[in-house]
Amino acid sequence: MTDELSNKIQDRQLQIGMVIFPGFTLQDLAGPQTAFGLHAKTHIIWKTMEPVPTDMGVTMNPTITIDDVPDNLDVLFVAGGGGTPEIMKDRELLDFIARAGQTATYVTAVCTGSVLLAMAGLLEGYRAATYWPFYEPLIALGIEPSYERVCVDRNRITGGGVTAGIDFALKVIAELKGQDAAEFTQLVLEYDPQPTMNSGNPRTARPEIVAKIKGLWGRTDEAVRVANEHMERRAQLSKLAPA
Length: 243
Fold this sequence. Notes:
The protein is of the alpha/beta class. It has ten helices and eleven strands. The chain has helices at 3-10, 26-36, 84-87, 91-103, 113-119, 135-140, 164-177, 179-188, 207-216, 219-240, and strands spanning 14-19, 40-46, 52-53, 59-60, 64-65, 75-78, 106-110, 127-128, 144-145, 150-153, 156-159. The strands form three sheets. A seven-stranded mixed sheet has the order 5-2-1-6-7-11-10, with helices on both faces. The longest helix is centred in the C-terminal third of the chain and has 22 residues, at 219-240. It is globular and about 55 Å long. It comes from Pseudomonas fluorescens. Keywords: Glutamine amidotransferase. This is Glutamine amidotransferase. Residues 18-174 form the DJ-1/PfpI domain.
């Protein structure tokens, strides 16, 4: 980001649009929104103003619909969650994400939200992090996966699964508002991770735990299927396009 753009951003209230959907993971939204809310106006976005269920049964009230989102958001953010495979087929929402991403200063996601960014055509030529069982659908969409907890590739910032949302948000705040603002936010949240075990990553978890998680995520296969169908349709349309 240029110094001129950085100064303009720091001199006004940030506008952050946060996309949710039926079956999103609450923590994907709650961690980043709590951090962003200290510095920005956050808009919780869905297609209607009806309460949106998470993948664990809690509901969240949107604050704005896709028809009323301000132009030129500073940050477009997409949550992830168990409902991702179904939302990969939601053309209306994906079209909105594509439009908003074209004018947003930063295009971002946590967890499987990066798969939705890819479905909207916003990650072509970029690396992206995602929730670890969803590397395969991301690859199927032609995106180079990042195994980092937070991946920064120019103005695309993506985080890994669920709890990575806080690390992600601190990085975004540092980019937009500076290191002091990010450190202030970290202390306000008392974000001082000291895990009581070492099973928070498939590279460190016991193999039987990894296998159990994969067994719960039959949705991954559905996401791969939808991704493959999407890429096949793109290839067919490319062949039909005039030379």
